[in-house]
Write a structure and sequence with these properties.
This protein is mainly beta and about 300 residues long. Helices cover about 10% and strands about 55% of the residues. The chain has a 14-stranded antiparallel β-barrel with strand order 1-2-3-4-5-6-7-10-11-12-13-14-15-16.
């Protein structure tokens, strides 16, 4: 009976994936509730605890030790979840900063693990130049991908698979109000699998973060993947008090509306992001906590 229920759970999982946009392994499930609330835009963000995943060049502005952790159940499904952890450390002199990220996505049913995706990312970013008007930084990231499936109902073990992906990024800051960032993911074209290999996602994102005046920031992004429709993502963030921010955004392909909020308690940040399901699926709620040495966005 238990095995039959596991089969039913797997069928429900597959049906949900069919209802959702076509999903490959290591799909783009956002790690940051702040970025989710901003329509999924992140390439040009400053003060980003999840820089190892988003744009390693942002680590060039690391101050002390900071980091964040988040949890999310995509579309509200109770059988799938993702947890992410990221930390950054400032290096002495002009060496910028280093970061480490850990992402775990899994599908479980009645205590049975159906699939598990684990990503461990090491990243480094540093400034190439800095003057009174502008700054330029570059960065790199190295990601180890691990994929595993649970045993089938007949006892077959599909085994595990691993791969390595290289990412590069850059960020330019102009007059402290404008940040222009770009990130290329998996530029080495990795694939995963032993016999039936699957190409891992390659993605190019370009974004701008602009603060026209204190307490307001906008963040539009363009994201492109081979064989996929180009996505336009964007959002705005408003500081409503010294300790609170409100956010809203949209992104296309599929069309999704987002919102969220952030709160400061000393150096701690509590963040919440909400995204709609694109008209068919349920809403996604994401929560996170972060530690930032300075209250800088």
């Amino acid at each position: 009976m238990r095995r039959m229920l596991v089969i039913a759970g797997l069928a429900a999982t597959l049906a949900a994936m069919v209802a959702a946009p076509a999903r490959a392994v290591f799909e783009d499930v956002e790690v940051s509730p702040r970025a989710r609330a901003l329509g999924g835009s992140w390439a040009g963000l400053g003060g980003d605890e999840y820089a190892p995943f988003h744009n390693p060049a942002a680590l060039a502005w690391s101050e002390g030790i900071g980091g964040g952790a988040s949890t999310v159940r995509p579309f509200g499904y109770d059988f799938s979840s993702q947890q992410a952890f990221s930390a950054g450390l400032a290096l002495p002199g002009r060496w910028g900063g280093v970061g480490l990220g850990l992402r775990r996505f899994g599908v479980d049913y009645l205590g049975e693990n159906l699939t598990r995706e684990t990503t461990v990312t090491l990243a480094h970013g540093f400034r190439l130049m800095a003057d009174a008007q502008s700054e330029l930084a570059i960065g790199w990231s190295l990601s180890l991908y691990g994929l595993s499936y649970g045993r089938s109902v007949t006892g077959i073990d599909p085994g595990d698979a691993n791969s390595v992906g290289l990412g590069i990024g850059a960020t330019a800051v102009l007059r402290e109000r404008t940040r222009i960032g770009f990130k290329a993911l998996n530029v080495n074209g990795p694939n995963i699998g032993n016999r039936d290999k699957e190409d891992l996602k390659r993605r190019l994102s370009i974004g701008v973060s602009y603060a026209p005046y204190g307490g307001v920031a906008t963040a539009p992004d363009i994201t492109s993947e081979p064989g996929e429709a180009m996505q336009y993502r964007g959002g705005a963030e408003f500081e409503v008090a010294d300790f609170a921010w409100l956010r809203a955004g949209i992104h296309t392909a599929p069309n999704v509306f987002t919102t969220g909020a952030g709160f400061a308690v000393g150096p701690l940040r509590l963040d919440y992001g909400l995204s709609t399901g694109g008209g068919v699926l349920g809403e996604t709620h994401q929560f996170g906590i972060a530690y930032r040495p300075r209250a800088r966005r």
